[in-house]
Amino acid sequence: MGKKLVSRVSGVYKIITVCVLSFVLSLGLTGCGEDPQQGLPGGAAPAVVELWHSLQGSETEALDRQVRRIMAGHPEVIILLKYIPENKMVDYAFQAQAGGEGPDIFLTTSETLTMLFHQGALAPVLGNSDAFPGLAAQFQYGEKSYAQPLVTDLPLFYYRTDLAQPPVSLQNLTEGKAVLALSSLDTRTLAAWWSSQGGRLTNNGQPALDGTTNLLFLQQLFAWREAKLLVIDPGAWLQFVNGQAAYTISWAGQARGLNGSIPWGSILLTQLTGGQGQILTGRTLGIANSSIKTTEVAASLIQLVENELLNPNNQWELGQSGSRFPASSSFYKQQEAQVGVLPQVGQGLEKAWALKGNALEWKLISVQDKAWQKAWSGVAPESALLEAQTEGLNILSQKQP
Fold first, then answer.
1. pLDDT (average), residues 114-137
2. What pTM value is reported for the model?
3. Based on the structure, what is the number of domains in the chain?
4. Phi-psi category of 103—alpha, beta or left, where left has phi over 0 and alpha has psi -120 to 50?
5. DSSP 161
């Protein structure tokens, strides 16, 4: 009786064992009906894309919202944001990349991206953009682009309708005897005015800072000062807001601070120059990818993240948070871009000066600014421009990066 019971129990165990093994084998062969998928339970872990940025305040908040939306729509990627102060970005990138580390993506100012390029920290950019040619050009070296512009700003001519008639030309300004207040004397602010009168930084690849047209432009400004029509003051914007100046030239982003109680209008400076002259933008943010981390394996995810951030609507959100404007040309064709100063910004960006990233002019802008400011403070204009020309020639003689 005992032997028969043991034999039956043993037989049951054999049957159970065979069933379990068959079930396990069937799971292994079928994979529960489908293979594990990236980013889904049971699949490979999401890939991490590290993004270094130098944004602060509301711009950081806007970037964080965008990153959360991207990850929600693309569970295959985790975007790790890391704030790096702008003045530390280049040094930190050098130290990290020396050890084979660092971010996959940089998001910072055009000036910092330029330094990162010359340091060898950037690979040809993967993100696609429909940026205005003048904005995109500043990140082009040779035939390749190493960054894409996201948001920017440009100068507008503002006028108080309660103090002066809307101007139609530069000559019209002097006839009205109304004051033009500028916060500084610099090339970016006055580029359209200066270049429309023949001003130039180079001639046939050589510095031309002491050229006759540059001198005549300065002399014109001095004549306006003598006639008490031009004031250079760091508080120029406040003078305009308080009604102490009828005109000012300032960034388009500042229009958001003008309340309804101030009767004002704005136009592009080129409207006063008969459509002539080049516009220089400022305060541009761009996006680029690392030369170390842009591998064949990571490229598709880096491109995904960059393309999402370059979306015109995301550019608009980021721009609004920091008083900047989208670099995307298609944005200005949308309905929401037909209000306020947005049409003027779009028209101005079409005329943005297309200077490639390694153009000598970028290095000469600050040299000319210094010369203008010296002349305004009392140095003879001829001497200030000649000194600038000497400095420009020294820059040209130095080995180009």
1. 97
2. 0.86
3. 2
4. beta
5. T
